[in-house]
Amino acid sequence: MGSGLILGIESSCDETAAAVVERGALTRSSIVASQIATHAPYGGVVPELASREHLRNLVPITRAALKQAGCGLGDLDAVAVTHGPGLAGALLVGITYAKGLAFAQGIPLIAVNHLEGHIHAVLLEDKQNRDQGTGTREQDELPTPALALVVSGGHTHLFLARPPAVGAEVGAWQYTLIGRTLDDAAGEAFDKVAKLLGLGYPGGPWIDHLAQFGDPKVVPFGFAQIKNKAHLDGKAPRTKGARTAPIADLDRHFLFSFSGIKTAVLRYVEVHGMRASCEARQRSLMAMPNPTWQDAQALCDRQTLDLIASFQHAVVGDLLRKTFAAAEAVGAASVLVTGGVAANRELRVRFTAEAAERGLPVAFPTLALSTDNAAMIAAAAWPRFLAGEFAGWGLEADPRLTLA
Ligand code: KG4
Ligand code: ZN
Fold first, then answer.
1. Of 96-100, 131-135, 284-288, 375-379, which gets the smallest average pLDDT?
2. Which band of pLDDT confidence, cut at 50, 70 and 90, is reported for residue 19?
3. CATH number of 5-141+368-387
4. Is the pLDDT of residue 243 over 50?
5. Angstrom distance (rounded) from CA 246 to CA 234
6. Where would a tag sit more exposed on the chain, N or C end, judged by fewer CB atoms within 10 A?
7. Neighbouring-strand partners of residue 15
8. How far is residue 386 from each of residues 171, 379, 380, measured CA to CA in Å?
9. What angle in degrees, to the nearest 10, is found between the helix axes of 259-271 and 275-287?
10. 5-141+368-387 and 186-360 share one fold
């Protein structure tokens, strides 16, 4: 083994990313090419366009990652790539490229689950903070088992994450599925509500910024109690990557559903005669070359800002209640929140306060590692590299891959 350098490649959705991470603990480089501008006019990710953009971006992004890391292909010990869940065509581009690189260099290929990647974004930074003495939680390692909330545009999952068994020098982390959404992911709700209100894409950051100017108590959105397990048997959830995860064995208190609140916002808009103003807002923002959230704020009246704040408050509250209830039920020693929605400020503030009240450590990735990136993929690959868990050259994309 050389210096423990793993090149990570991520192309599961709408970001093309490459990163070099040393021994799963030090980010030597992390480059992300966002496709937001490509998909924004359509208000969502267009799979064919995503594949085409990955194809265009992968080579220059990888070169840039190697250059920033100060190394060449010959210095790498392995290539790690996301093999699912995600968009089939998008995953395929990354996998094919990673295979080619690894084969040509004669080094192993490591397959990484995107959800495990998100969890390792937090673990990687936790490790880095401790190594560099910059952590906010002194030098203590994040206690395990950790209850991980993976919350993004495609996923809303609760996992109990355990490190390799004590005494075992090598081995992968173990994950147990504790809860998940039955329909939309939380980020998807942010995106759909933002679209309905005539805001930009992706919706999360717009709502996050505008919510601070509204009163979250104006619209009392509620979440219906998820029905008994018996009613859920055989029900096929619709979220990306969650279709095949079993739900029959899960405690219904830890199941999420975000399609209802989206409909409730739509109904509120219609009942209060706000539709025309939402459409006007969308036209105004689309006519601007580079609209900012301040531009959007100027186009929102009080009623709209209150609606946005109330929506975000309800979603964050639901995530918070179920996450901490699950942490208590399974005896988790810490909570970690990761994925695009973990960038949300109200979420961070409220999770931090709740954790402090319960005396439970909580960790989030930095904003850069909250959304999709490849450093998390290279970091998640390290325990597999040590354990010699390599992928074959026949590795395929698995759009519905589950974790646990
Ligand atoms: O992890 P990610 O980059 O991609 C997926 O794996 O889905 O997450 C993207 C999602 C989008 O739905 C986006 O609206 C949401 O994360 N998001 C946010 C924020 N920043 C991104 N949601 C709420 N608040 C934010 N600040
Ligand atoms: Zn993601």
1. 131-135
2. very high
3. 3.30.420.40
4. no
5. 9
6. N
7. 34
8. 7, 12, 11
9. 100
10. yes
Burial of 171-190, coded b for 16+ CB within 10 Å and e otherwise, reads: ebbebebbbbbbbbbbbbbb
Pocket test for ligand 1, best of 190, 350, 367 (most atoms within 8 A of CB): 190
Q: Exposure of 38 by Cβ count < 10 A (0-12 exposed, 13-18 middle, 19+ buried)?
A: middle
- Hey, which of 349, 371, 376, 401 would you mutate to test ligand 1's pocket, going by the most ligand atoms within 8 Å of its Cβ? 371
Closest Cα to atom 22 of ligand 1: 204
pTM: 0.92
CB of 239 sitting under 6 A from ligand 1? no
| Architecture of the domain made up of 186-360 | 2-Layer Sandwich (3.30)
Q: Where are the alpha helices (DSSP H) in 151-202?
A: 186-196
Q: What residue spans define the domains of the chain?
A: 5-141+368-387, 186-360
Closest ligand relative to 194 C-alpha: 1
Closest by CA to 378, choosing from 14, 12, 81, 142, is: 81
Closest atom of ligand 1 to 202 CA is 14
CB 105 within 8 A of CB 73: yes
Distance 191 CA to ligand 1 centre (A): 8
